[in-house]
Amino acid sequence: MPRPLVQPAALCCVALLLSAQSAQATAPNICAPRDKVVDKLATDYGESRQSIGLGRDNAVVEVFASTSSGTWTITVTRADGMTCLVASGQAFETLAEAAPAGGSAL
Length: 106
Prior knowledge:
By secondary structure, the protein is α+β, with helices and mostly antiparallel strands. Helix content is about 35%, strand content about 30%.
C-alpha cells in the first residue's frame, strides 16, 4: 500500500471499530424476570435448558435449545433475578468433545 494511504486507511478501520462498539453499547437489552423468559422460550420455540454455568459477578449463564427445530438461545441471569437474552440462532448441536491431551491454556 502506498505510504500516503496507510494513515487514512488505519483511521477508517479505527472509526469502523468504534462505531460498531458504540452501536453494540447502545443496543437495548432484552430482559425480563427469569420465569417469563424460560416460559417464552419453551412455549414459542420449544427450547429447554441444555447447559448452565456461572459467569462474572455471579451471573448465571444458560444455553436453551430445541433439539427438534435446532434453535438456541443464550441467556444471562443477574443477581437481581432479571434474565437477559445474549444471543440466539439456529442449527444447535449437542457435542461431547474430549479436551486435547495435556490441555492447552487460552
